[in-house]
Automatic annotation (TrEMBL):
Name the record gives this protein: Ferredoxin--NAD(+) reductase
Entry keywords, A to Z: 2Fe-2S, FAD, Flavoprotein, Iron, Iron-sulfur, Metal-binding, Oxidoreductase
Domain of life of the organism encoding this protein: Bacteria
InterPro entries reported in the protein's UniProt record: FAD-oxidoreductase/Apoptosis (IPR050446), FAD/NAD-bd_sf (IPR036188), FAD/NAD-binding_dom (IPR023753), FAD/NAD-linked_Rdtase_dimer_sf (IPR016156), Reductase_C (IPR028202), Rieske_2Fe-2S (IPR017941), Rieske_2Fe-2S_sf (IPR036922)
EC nos: 1.18.1.3
Pfam families reported for this sequence: Pyr_redox_2, Reductase_C, Rieske
Length: 495
């Protein structure tokens, strides 16, 4: 296609981005330190406007979920996107910027014809991106995925958010990666895995011999050990949401036991569907342990302003078909409950025999490349990477990609910044980094209006950042946090 003159170079100074539309194609022009590039205008993951993203370290960071791309090539650096950016030919002539709306050919790796079988134990976030990364890296051998849940892989992050509220249909949350990457599927559970023998015994009676394996069985919801516990729903798979939505029809009173992210996201979704929701928890404040009391008060106030009711600092004693019994001090109290959801966290799903090294935190110990033993890598909720285990879908994707690159023989190791997001009544909170304690919390912005950045400082360095309504600034910090900045350095970066 012929080039099109789109603007004068004076209209796009260094450090700026501008969207242009060429026919039906919308293109983002970016002028950064190393030159001028033209890329697709929306993130390939969820369609976020990349114009609102951040440019840092020669990379473009998506403002919604921190997907990261190399600007010089468009290559994917960090998920949740599972593909690189489309790049368009662009050049400067006579002070004018010219763009060809026909995208450049996608870079592909030469297929490596090996008679190898890679076994994926688990088809969640880590398994899905591992399969994609292997194929993108040229692996042409067999990939066999084993999982008892047929509807995986899906974008699990939307289950307790948009799917439960009805904002996003369940048939739109699937990831089509396995059909596009020629992955063989077996719907079964792994009963035993031997890294030494390179074999896995499955619940359907078969034995799989593998050359390399990625174990990513994820987490399983914790079960309450109280009378009537079987009456409570949990949220892990699309079928769980389907059951809850069906059970909620015509109901008025819902009780959610647990102040986890899933519990509070579910509260937000069900209140918006017209139910009266009471959240029951042992804690004094939801999220206080992770975010601190000041932020926790603000989030609780948001929920209460929308109709969520709380009964905190209580124990849950029992369930029956119409009541939840709680104990506050020495007194029992019954809460009306047409629908009960348990959101009390997850445990590593490791209900199979194996010879992998166990970590003190209950997961499987791995090195920075996600290798646990011999030719077996471990990723996601069950992976304790260099002594740290974090349960989140996006981190599982980071793990899966790192492990797949290591399988391909690259010097791959996890050096990214952990990131997760949570969604409550239209407010998305984004958390970068990881810390279990801090010396100080510094809040910039208006916490009451939930337009802020909270910096969690430990030993004069930022260990974590929580933000709301600060997407572009957070995207910038996703790169800056790699160097463990001081508060002053972080503020300068986002000024």
């Amino acid at each position: 296609m012929p080039e099109i003159r789109v603007m004068n170079t004076s209209e796009l100074p260094c450090g700026h981005k501008k969207t242009v539309k060429l026919g039906e194609t919308e293109i983002l022009l970016i002028h950064y330190e190393e030159g001028l590039v033209a890329v697709q205008s929306q993130c390939p993951h969820a369609g976020a406007p990349l114009k609102e993203g951040a440019i840092c370290n020669g990379r473009l960071v998506c403002p919604w979920h921190m997907g990261t791309f190399e600007l010089s090539t468009g290559a994917l650096v960090e998920p949740p996107p599972m593909e690189s950016l489309k790049m368009y030919p662009v050049r400067v002539e006579g002070g004018e910027i010219l763009v060809n709306p026909e995208p450049l050919p996608t870079a592909t790796s030469t297929p490596v014809q090996k008679e190898e079988l890679v076994l994926l134990v688990g088809t969640g976030a880590a398994g899905a991106i591992a399969a994609t990364t292997l194929r993108q890296g040229g692996f042409a051998g067999r990939i066999l995925a084993v999982d008892p849940v047929e509807e995986e892989p899906v974008d699990r992050t939307v289950l307790s958010k948009m799917a439960l509220s009805g904002e996003m249909p369940l048939d739109q949350i699937g990831l089509s990666t396995f059909s596009s990457t020629k992955v063989e599927r077996i719907h079964a559970a792994v009963l035993e895995l031997s890294a030494a023998q390179k074999e896995a015994h499955l619940s359907n009676g078969s034995v799989v011999k593998f050359d390399k394996a990625l174990v990513a069985t994820g987490g399983k919801p914790k079960q309450l050990e109280i009378p009537g516990a079987e009456l409570a729903y949990t949220i892990r798979h699309p079928r769980d949401v389907q059951r809850i939505l069906k059970a909620a029809e015509g109901k008025k009173e819902a009780v959610i036991v647990g102040t986890s992210f899933i519990g509070l996201e579910a509260a937000s979704a069900l209140v918006q569907k017209g139910l009266r929701v009471t959240v029951v928890g042992k804690e004094k404040l939801p999220f206080a342990k992770l975010f601190g009391e000041e932020v926790a008060h603000a989030l609780k106030a948001l929920h209460e302003s929308k109709g969520t009711r709380f009964r905190l600092e209580v124990e849950t004693s029992s369930f029956d078909s119409t009541w939840v019994t709680i104990r506050a001090g020495e007194k029992d109290e019954r809460l009306p409950a047409d629908l009960i959801i348990a959101g009390v966290g997850v445990l590593p799903d490791l209900e199979f025999k194996h010879d992998l090294p166990r970590a003190k935190d209950g997961g499987i110990a791995t090195d920075a490349s996600l290798r646990a033993k011999d030719e077996v890598w471990v990723a996601g909720d069950i992976a304790s990477v260099s002594g740290t285990r974090i349960e989140h879908w996006r981190l599982a994707q980071q793990h899966g990609r790192v492990a797949a690159l290591a399988m391909l023989g690259q010097d791959s190791r996890y050096e990214g910044v952990p990131f997760f997001w949570t969604f409550h009544y239209g407010k998305q909170l984004e958390y970068l980094g990881h810390t279990e304690d801090w010396d100080e919390v510094v809040i910039d912005g208006d916490l009451k209006e939930l337009n802020f950045m909270a910096f969690y400082i430990k030993q004069e360095r930022i260990a974590a950042v929580l933000s709301c309504e600060r997407e572009t600034q957070t995207a910038m910090l996703a790169e800056v946090m790699r160097s463990h900045p001081t508060l002053e350095q972080a503020r300068q970066a986002i000024a």
